[in-house]
Amino acid sequence: MWREAAGRKDVVLLDGFHALKHALRFGADVRAVVADDPDAVRALAAELAPDVEAEVARLVGRAVVRSLLPRVHPTGVAALAVRPDAAEGRARLERMPRTAPVVVLDNPRNLGNVGAVVRLAAGFGATGVVTRGDLDPWHPNVVRAGAGLHYATTVAGVDIDTLPPGPVYALDPEGEDIRALTLPDDALLAFGSERHGISPELRARADHLVSLPMRPQVSSYNLATSVAMTLFHWGGPHPDPAATV
Ligand SMILES: C[S@@+](CC[C@H](N)C(=O)[O-])C[C@H]1O[C@@H](n2cnc3c(N)ncnc32)[C@H](O)[C@@H]1O
Fold first, then answer.
1. Residue 119 CB contacts under 8 Å (≥ 6 apart), including other chains
2. How far away, in angstroms, is 68 Cα from ligand 1 center?
3. How far is the CA of 173 from the centre of ligand 1 (A)?
4. Residue 38: closest CA among 91, 77, 82, 81
5. Coil, helix or strand for 195?
6. Is 30 close to ligand 1, i.e. is its CB under 6 Å away?
7. Which residue from 63, 80, 94, 149 could staple onto 34, CB 3.0 to 4.6 Å apart?
8. Global pTM?
């Protein structure tokens, strides 16, 4: 089953139990799950993720994982899931009205940063993460850093001409202090590359340039931490009214 799934062009590797758990929880089409010790994985599911325990138990098969992969995750499990269609993802991001912002990464370079941003977007309930440039936001190292949470939001590559609709708030240390602003739910929150910051093309599209508070002489924050602060300022998921009753 693994070799058959691995032969498909549209599958991604879910490396480790947490990535598998999140992917199943958020509706991924998981095609193969392997472990040296399937019973240990079933026990992990019973302990950490009873909501997907039955699915894990049904899917997991025995295999010598290191014969399939160069590196085995400490939880000893790996899975393959279908990567959603990019055009469908972009179409979803076109839809308005929007109840939560889209994060735009302008030519990011660091795969770990992009994964951390996907994880943040999933946690805050952002509508999605779009990237400009040549980095694949579904690269296996991005999916690993995102802990399988690509399936909990929408992740796609875009061009400057196919940015989703909405007012562009570009984050830049030279901008207006974020504390003076309310970020609307339909915002595109745009962040520059680690090396060069916001590109001239995206700057030209920006409706607002926004800065995060920072001491003089500090040049900038890390990309993913900037996204975290900005999403926190936006407000995050609306509290579930049922939970307060
Ligand atoms: C590592 S920084 C880029 C640094 C880059 N050398 C530059 O000249 O802008 C990556 C991105 O994080 C965001 N960022 C970092 N610090 C920020 C700050 N103090 N205010 C607003 N955005 C910030 C910006 O979007 C920036 O383009």
1. 145, 146, 147, 149
2. 39
3. 6
4. 77
5. coil
6. no
7. 63
8. 0.94
